[in-house]
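Bug #77: duplicate submission created two jobs. Keeping one. Sequence:
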Amino acid sequence: MDIQLRDLRYFEVVAELGHIGQAAEKLGRTQPALTKAVQRLEAAFGSELFERKGRGIRLTPVGEVLLARARMLRGATDEALREVGDFAKGNAGHVRIGSGPIAAEHVLPEICSLLLEEAPATTIDITVAPSLVLRERLKEGTLDLLIGLMPEHDDALVSHAIVEDVVVVAASRTHPVFQLPRVTLKSLLAWRWVLPAASIPSRQWLDAAFQSHDLPRPATQIDANSIPLLPRLIAKTELLSFLSRHTLHEHRHTLREVPLKEATLRRSLGVTYRRQGYLSPAALRLMALLQERGEALFRAAPGDAAKP
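Kept job's structure:
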């Protein structure tokens, strides 16, 4: 079976866009060239990879499997080229970082500055997104390191803990909840909430905490896909939210924690990489810096550098 990497790349773009014409425009190729690439792959695998859907096309089950493998193969190829390139040039290399919102706000700027002080030639790509999304990109090989929530168990990944992250109920300092003689999960249902999207692990945990006590999930008035936005949305309202203590500390002059054991989530933040993946010298040094200085950076007041 003779398969060209170029055909797989064309196939990836067609699959992502669901349209031959749009893929041809993006790649700067003709439609017939892309059609022939797909046909060569279909002949090699003995199965159709696409089926018609309205004015576009979508993957068949065989196409879905090939797309996942094509992404992994492209990631491995890119890694091989980077490794050989780093060796040939003798330079510090390049590092691609994926960061969850908490790490991006509290540790990423300072840790990048420390790295660039040591290796000024280093180049860095940063992607900020929820940890679950970044984890898939890490597995595909489009990221080198993930700074954020640690996976519970995944044989393909290796993680090192940096700091414990505690997520708590938060409200404005003048919120009526602080006038209650006793705060319970049930009493918190008297107010509406500002919460991250339902796909975010902390939101799922909070919903489950209420449901485990036979209570309805919190009534969400505002869904936000930006976690750093949450504190500002509750600062001048009677809405409640669910925030990391790291974030709450930054807004301590306007917000307070609502102490409640049943609504306190403890989790680990760390750095994660692929077990079999290539790490450039820059990525290795960044990981070492995170292990050496990461906890201090997380715990430092916003804007303060961690002192050696």
